[in-house]
Design brief:
alpha/beta, FAD/NAD(P)-binding domain, Enolase-like, domain 1, six-stranded antiparallel beta sheet, about 30% helix
Length: about 475
Amino acid sequence: MAETYDVAVIGGGPGGYVAAIRARQLGLSVVLAEKERIGGVCLNHGCIPTKTLLSDLEGYSWVKRAAKDLILDSAPNLDFSRMMSRKNAVVDKLVSGLEKQIATLGIRTVKTHARVAEPGVALTDQGENLHAKNIVIATGSRSIRPPIPGANLPGVLTTRHMLMLEKPPKRLIIIGGGIIGQEFAALFAGMGAKVTVLELLDRILPGVDGELARKYASLVQPQGVRIETGVRVRAIESNRSGLRVLYEKGSQEKTAETDLTLLATGRRPFYEGSGMDELGATMVNGALQVDRYLRTSLENVYAIGDALGKRMLAHVASYQGEVVAENVAGFERPSEDELVPCCVFTLPQIAWVGPTEQEAAAAGFPFRTSTFPLSASGKAMAMGESLGWVKLIEHAETKRLIAAHLLGPQVSELIGELTLAIRARMSASDIVETMHPHPTLSEAVREAAMGLQDGPIHAAPRTKLFPVLQ
């Protein structure tokens, strides 16, 4: 008789493998089905590869600054093939480590696509029935390929293909000005490419605080990134030198020549072939629907991560992976993922948590903001990267922090403190009364908090009050 597992996880990305590991830690028997490599898009084709390359570029930027300051005789040339080799080595090491950990824990892995044949049974491509008391859908998302004529031409690539290039383009057009588009713009502009970003909306980075998005757009133009907003791409054509992108801006028809075109128009939940459609699982707007405990409408079938179509972030999927494993084990833990830190790994970085200034104004409660410039930060000056800001938002009546928005070097490392502060319902005084080490970028967080009290020490106050609109 076939073994019955406590839980079968379909998908081995940052949600699926975390769910499998956490379930095993809780003493459950687990089988994990993944058709490609453990780690999913994030580890193999997204987060880790791009951050490895961007880390190399940060080092290269330091070398160029040192050469400009005559600390070094000259800046060396980048070796793209070696950058890609190091990227592959980092990914391989992390994947190998995960595979060993999963095997050591006694989790059975099957390298196959699997679908829910019925509650309690997952069917693999090899025809094996995986019997499980509970099933977790962690099938992730896939890139959206917009219906643009010519979008399937050679040289029109997705992010996965961009990370497999043998040489960098000299000219690159990126269709889409969101987080993914801006990260790839920073990456290839840093390698010397002339980058053009075409965005349908009237601004880039729609999820980012409007003020910081505008500041960021002004900072990247000298780096070789040209941004055009409010455009509609009509077609992509081949020509002798590569590709031609035809688009409209207002009443004007424009064209742009390029070697490669990157489609960075977002991602959508991927659950095709999972069996959820056929079994009648509840879906809304093409995404699986779950309750607070991550249960789908099918008995003992759960879903997590990008398949839910909400915050498509690896750390959200991993968080939900832990939650779903504990619920399968009988803990009844609700998923509380409304407060999500977000990061854009550009040069400089952007990070935020909580509502933007615009969202807070629309919500109708009074609030105050305090902004501290990194030009007044000793550590930022020492790093040679003093262009940036820390903005904090507090509720004007309760005095509790509700949001933080940061632009500058390594600000992704600062947003965790602020996420914890907001989650713990702390005030600016709680941050001010907490000693921060010197010299660090974290001091800028404390100085911004001081701006919500008597004013910062190292800069002029920049505080604004937004009363409720009558």
